[in-house]
Amino acid sequence: MLLTDKSAMVTGAGSGIGRAIATSYAREGAAVLVADIDRAGARETVSLIEAAGGRALAFALDVRQPEQHLDAVGEAVKRFGGLHIACNNAGLGGGGASGRYLPLAETALEDWDALIGVNLSGVFYGLRAQIPAMLQAGGGSIVNIASVMAQTARPNLGAYVSSKHGVLGLTRAAAVDYAPQKLRVNAIGPGYIDTPMLARADAGKRAAIAGWHPVGRLGEAQEIAELAVWLASDRASFVTGAYYPVDGGYLAQ
Ligand SMILES: NC(=O)c1ccc[n+]([C@@H]2O[C@H](COP(=O)([O-])OP(=O)(O)OC[C@H]3O[C@@H](n4cnc5c(N)ncnc54)[C@H](O)[C@@H]3O)[C@@H](O)[C@H]2O)c1
Predict the structure, then answer these.
(1) Candidates 10, 24, 36: which one to mutate for ligand 1, based on the most atoms within 8 Å of Cβ?
(2) Which residues contact 39 (CB under 8 A, 6 or more apart)?
(3) Which of 53, 71, 54 minimizes the C-alpha distance to 63?
(4) Does the C-beta of 17 come closer than 6 Å to ligand 1?
(5) What is the reported pLDDT for 73?
């Protein structure tokens, strides 16, 4: 087991990629704070972890609220005796609040605010709360879930692309600030992954999206989680400030 005796928290862990990461951290021996705005989803993830013999706690967290991050970190420290691993995963899909995909200048202000608020400010507020606790524990590992859209763009995704490029900036900034204190910060760039985030796409759209990847299929949440485990573990001790695509070849084209 790679994460024995570690304490971890995962945001957006009530669904999709976050759930796969939370269950995988627990499988590797970590106690996991399962944070999500969706309480029922968080509780379901905790049930899955407990059924597999792991240790977890559900926590209601809206990543747009800085003080709720402080509460979440405080709870992990109180219940698990510290914080060693954090995964900032909560995010909204490309259409933002309205689900509309439009050229940049036509992006509704509410969609811009929603995507930057959750996907970018939500990660900053997380880092701001997690880093002091992890320094107190003598260091640790933070994994931010970005996207292939942190490195490239597709049409009509301007706010999402901007938010994910920002996550990469935050990752690098935090990595260089805290590397001397044994705190590592890295980002993962998933290609299109088969989670509820893609639920709006009908069968034809899903097939088209799959075809954008050289492997010819969508990714699975577990395929992201395996890298998130490795980055969180001491096996990745010389890895910080890095960005790893897990994208079926999407960015290689
Ligand atoms: N699915 C993909 O194709 C894909 C591709 C690249 C990157 N990503 C990124 O992966 C992450 C997870 O996405 P997913 O596919 O698992 O989506 P998902 O919709 O299945 O899960 C997202 C989770 O985030 C939670 N969430 C949303 N707003 C929140 C808030 N304000 N506070 C706390 N939690 C909140 C939701 O309740 C949900 O449980 C996101 O950051 C997303 O941008 C997904």
Answers:
(1) 36
(2) 14, 58, 60
(3) 71
(4) yes
(5) 99
The pLDDT-based confidence of 6 (bands split at 50, 70, 90) is: very high
Q: Of all atoms in ligand 1, which is nearest to the CA of residue 64?
A: 31
**Amino acid 198: pLDDT:** 92
Report all structural domains of the chain as residue ranges with CATH numbers, in order of start: 7-193+222-245 (3.40.50.720)
209 lines ligand 1 (CB under 6 A): no
> Residue 84 pLDDT > 90, yes or no?
yes
Is 39's pLDDT higher than 90? yes
Catalytic one among 25, 101, 125, 160?
160
Active site residue 25: no
Strand residues in 119-219 grouped as ranges (E):
140-145, 183-190
Give the three-state DSSP class for 75: helix
Q: What is the pTM of this model?
A: 0.99
Question: Is residue 223 lining ligand 1, measured as CB closer than 6 Å?
Answer: no
Is the model's pLDDT at 155 over the cut of 90? yes
Distance CA 167, CA 54 (A): 30
